[in-house]
Each structure stands twice: as C-alpha cells, then as structure tokens.
Amino acid sequence: MHHKSKPIFIMLLFITGCQDHWNWIDTLPKPWTLSEAEVSEILPEFHSRFPDFNDRLKAFSLWQVGKPYEIFKLGEEKDPDPDPIIRLDVSDCTVHVLTSLAFVQSDSWDRAKDNMILIHYKDHQPDFKSRWHFTSDRISSHPGTVDITKTLLPIENLKRANVTLNQKENGEELLDLNWEREVETHYVPNNELSPNLLKKLPGVCGAAFVKKSLFELGIIIGHEGMLIDNQFLVHASSTTGETVKTDFLSYYFSEPEGIFDGVMFYEFRPMDPL
User: Fold this and answer.
1) By C-alpha distance, which of 208, 240, 234 is closest to 58?
2) Which of 10, 158, 211, 216 makes an SS bond possible with 222, Cβ 3.0 to 4.6 Å?
3) What is the pLDDT of residues 139-158, one digit of tens each?
C-alpha cells in the first residue's frame, strides 16, 4: 500500500453538488493503493452517500473491482496463521465478502478490524480454530449471512446435500480444528437458474456455489460472491486474477451445463455493534 497522502484524494472527499453517488465511486483512488489512514478518511463518506446498508455494501463491493487476487490471505496475526485480520490490498472470494461487510459497518480502519473479528470468528476472538472456515456453515448459522435458498422455490425443486463438514471421505479431518458438523443443505440446481429466479432475490445478496466434487473433502461450497441488481456477480476471480463484475448467468453457464452444481443464496444483515 502507498502511505503518502494524495492531495487530490482529500479534495475528492469534499466534492458535493450534482455528482451521482454511483459515479462518485469511480472518482476514488482504488482501496489497494491507499493507506489505512486514507481508508479511514473515506469511510464516513460512504455512510453519508449511501445511508442504506445494502446500497453501501453494493458501493463498497464495486469500489474493489480490479483488486489483485490472492488466496488464503487473512489470518489472526499470530501462529499458525500470521496474516492480517483485515486487509484491502488483495482478496479471495470469501475475503471480498467478509471485508466488505466489515468496512461498510465501520467509520475507520480500526473499527473495521474490530468488526471483522465479530464477523469472522464464532466466539468473537481471533483464533484459527474458531474462524468460520466453511461457507455453508457460516450461511446456515451466522446472523450476518442468512440462507434464503428455501424461500425461492418449492422444496421439491431444490437439491439436497448431506455432508459432514471438515470430515474427509476416509474419516480424517480436513483442517486441524477438532471440529466437524453434519449438515443438510438445500441449493438451487442448475436447471432452475434463470433471470426469473434472480428477480426473486434482494437487490444485493450473496451467492455461494456448490461443488459436488468437494463433498468427499467435507466441503460444500467452492466459491462465493455478491449478486447485485439481480443480474451481476461481483467476486474475486482466480481465473482473471482480480475482483470483477460480470453477468451472473453468463459467468455461471460459460460451460453449457454450468461450472458448478448449484447455488445457495443468502441475505446480508447488519451485525450488532461490538
């Protein structure tokens, strides 16, 4: 990250008048070029311009388009994972979702770090074993990412997955957590994904992609991102090497049968403050 203040950056914070709020995002320096102090300066402006929680989440997500992709880059700032608790310089798919949730509920970098601890850890303490390691576990149990899949279609039109999270086919743990969880998860199969289904979703929501080949590892979800305006997916893409905005259905059906086996959809909700 750059640590030198940019005079133009300070000026942008005070631009008022007729400028459209969504266009304003494009005038900002990208977050991965900014220092923690500079990000702290701009966060209150997001709250001012986007007082609605979901609008602010959409805006912050779009601000990150172009961010470099790197996987497994969040940690506890101590062994066994000394990576930062929160960051904006690189991202993978889950990091994009969770850091967005943390920052849009914060007015400074330090507050965002505190909120990330609340969001990313089951007991609200930064410890590797208490982290929400499995997206399907988080969607089914976390108050900030609430599963809405079963509200979209009759239950008989959904597919069901029964998996023991963190347990491989041979009975061993995938991650050294001394934890496993049997879950029954419902998801929208590929034949039900359509523009009409997307219209049933909130204007901003989460999309978690089911991959059956991962079930034998004790994993259900292979990727996730944010669906905005009932059409576009904003996600950290390993294929392009950066965070991108793309048409959801075009991305999903870039192979005729679909690149995943189905989707869980979830709603974002504000967290209680620390």
Assistant:
1) 234
2) 211
3) 999 999 999 999 999 999 99
